[in-house]
Design brief:
By secondary structure, this protein is an all-beta fold. It is built from no helices and 7 strands. It has one domain: Galactose-binding domain-like (Jelly Rolls, Sandwich), CATH 2.60.120.260. A hairpin with a 5-residue loop joins strand 3 and strand 4.
Amino acid sequence: MVDNDFNTYWHSAWSGGVAPLPHYIQITFAEAKNIGGFQFWTRSSSQRGNDPVQFDVQTSADGVDYTTVWTSDVLETAARPSKNDVSLDKNYSSKYFRIRIVETRTPGLTHTTMSEIKVFDDGLLPY
């Protein structure tokens, strides 16, 4: 998801013992950083119902115990497979972050997928 190759992708388990949502991407920086937003790309242009459409962000002081600090509205139309911008309500500072997928395009699905993700400091300003 961070290799700049839109032909590769991450996919949660989809059969046999599938864990329910939310699924998460965990980010550990060498030192505390701000996250003010992120961009994600869906897996492909097909009409899959497992595209992520709602997220939350969690931070942690120790990398073990996480607290939800922000939750998005449901994205009505996530672009396929183009860039989707998600701005947080403010910058959140931590060494440990989780971006959690809490809902998919088809409510009730327990699996999801993404091609790429990039996090940004101060809204959508790149590091």
